[in-house]
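INTERNAL AUDIT FORM
Audit reference: QA-55
Scope: verify that the stored structure record matches its stored sequence.
Auditor: D.O.
Record contents follow.
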Amino acid sequence: MPNNKRLTKKSMQGAMENIHPSSRRSGQLDRIVLRKTKLSKEKNYRKRANAEKLERPLFFHHSLPPPPFVAHTLPELHELISQVYLERNDDELAQLKKERRAGRVKCRREIEIEEIKRKELSEYQSGFEVPDLTHEPTVALMRSWESCDPSFLPLLRYIRINSKDPELVVVAHRGLGRGVDDEFAPQNVGGAEGEEMEE
């Protein structure tokens, strides 16, 4: 029967003196270090993935107007995406271009911003997924989101819209929050998840 006991550097503290490079103890220490490195990489990857997943909903959360506001119309949501969200890094990009001397290669941050912008523009043309700010219960739910907790995201209702056909709305995710699935904004009446809806 295999020994499933998980070894750590702390548990092997006393046995670390005078270890032969080819010994069993040396192999155990190597495995401990490899495992620690692997766990650290996975943790960093999860952190990055969570940050990317949170970026878009957080932007729209912070862009909500003060409380008398109830919900955006579809043209207002398109305007918010095209004139604010997609251009959010333009100032930084212009500054980086200004600082770069003629003939010099682009810095890593400039390349990253250009790649993000290209990817998001392409996504907006084919189908851009955003929290449904045309839907009152979703807006109310977004207002109640006070922490940056990723577990909150499945509660929100998401729609997919695009610049080529501004009237087309597709419910990408119905949302698990209370009241989010009960009520639909006027332009979204009758849309099941993944079903296309026209105004």
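Auditor finding: record pair retrieved intact. The CA atoms of residues 128 and 161 lie 5 Å apart.
Action required: none
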